[in-house]
Design the sequence.
């Protein structure tokens, strides 16, 4: 019949049916991918373009539309959908930072403590025979008895003599600057005369029957090079404040005479080591002082009276007076 549309042939109808379901599947997958990657806006717009392109392409397949230019938008839209379908996975991974590696669990090994065998474990009361009886196996080995650990015998510590203990304390504090350290029994009455300036021979200083004798420690050390007289005064008082608590931590010492030596030059230009400072202090006086907090400028007051005393070399007397007057 003239004017009627020609019926599509069977191969073209089969191709049309196959492409229809293929494009529907592509459309669904593309919509899901675009929703995850690009958001709902493209999910709405792009399927409309694809759907319109499908109708244009369908018209060409059934023979209603022949010019290729009229179906070009549909072909381009469907091609774009296929391209986005294949690019969906890398796009999704790129926007979400790639696949995240699952961290492997960290296994922390717990150290098994070694069993400690105590001697008290051998003194445990025996359990009832019915509870502890074990039928021996024919091939079982006899149990090795557990013996108590041997007790270490402590090594005896050598006790230092009072003289050696004094020398060790002086060496630990003054190091190479220590010159001498010794203990002497001193008659108290003779010591008082010596501190007052009365000359006394060695025989007079020796203890006599009935005299009150004190154990007197004499420690000599090198004061070392100092910047000026004021620095020498501060160094000597600091040495006294640090050394006195260490010395009287020893038993059997009643008094300390700490002598700091320095090099002095006479009018002829000759240098000679002489006593720069001499501090005399008793155990009783030292026990009254908080040596960590004491103001060393008050040492002249603290070491006055009784068996205590301070001697300062004439070349340093002016610096000492200035230091203690502040």
Sequence:
């Amino acid at each position: 019949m003239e004017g009627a549309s020609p019926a599509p042939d069977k191969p073209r109808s089969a191709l049309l049916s196959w492409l229809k379901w293929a494009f529907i599947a592509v459309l669904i997958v593309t919509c899901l991918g675009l929703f995850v990657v690009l958001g709902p806006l493209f999910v709405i717009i792009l399927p409309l373009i694809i759907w319109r392109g499908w109708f244009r392409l369908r018209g060409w397949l059934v023979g209603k539309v022949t010019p290729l230019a009229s179906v070009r938008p549909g072909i381009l839209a469907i091609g774009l959908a296929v391209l986005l379908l294949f690019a969906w996975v890398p796009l999704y991974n790129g926007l979400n930072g790639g696949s995240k590696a699952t961290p492997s669990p960290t296994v922390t090994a717990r150290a098994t403590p070694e069993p400690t065998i105590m001697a008290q474990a051998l003194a445990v009361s025996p359990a009832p025979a019915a509870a502890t009886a074990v039928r021996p196996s024919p091939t079982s080995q006899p149990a090795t008895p557990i013996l108590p650990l041997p007790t270490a015998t402590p090594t005896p510590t050598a006790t230092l003599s009072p003289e050696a203990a004094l020398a060790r304390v002086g060496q630990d504090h003054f190091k190479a600057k220590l010159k001498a350290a010794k203990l002497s029994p001193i008659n108290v009455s003779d010591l008082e005369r010596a501190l007052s300036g009365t000359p006394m021979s060695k025989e007079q200083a020796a203890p006599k029957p009935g005299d009150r004798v004190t154990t007197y420690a004499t420690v000599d050390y090198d004061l070392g090079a100092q910047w000026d007289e004021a620095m020498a005064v501060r160094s000597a008082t600091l040495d006294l404040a640090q050394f006195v608590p260490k010395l009287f931590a020893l038993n059997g010492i009643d008094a300390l005479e700490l002598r700091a030596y320095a090099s002095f030059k006479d009018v002829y230009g000759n240098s000679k080591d002489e006593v720069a400072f001499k501090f005399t202090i008793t155990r009783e006086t030292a026990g009254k002082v908080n040596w960590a907090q004491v103001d060393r400028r008050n040492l002249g007051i603290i070491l006055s009276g009784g068996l205590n005393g301070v001697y300062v070399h004439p070349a340093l007397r002016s610096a000492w007076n200035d230091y203690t007057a502040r």
In short: The chain has a mean pLDDT of 74.
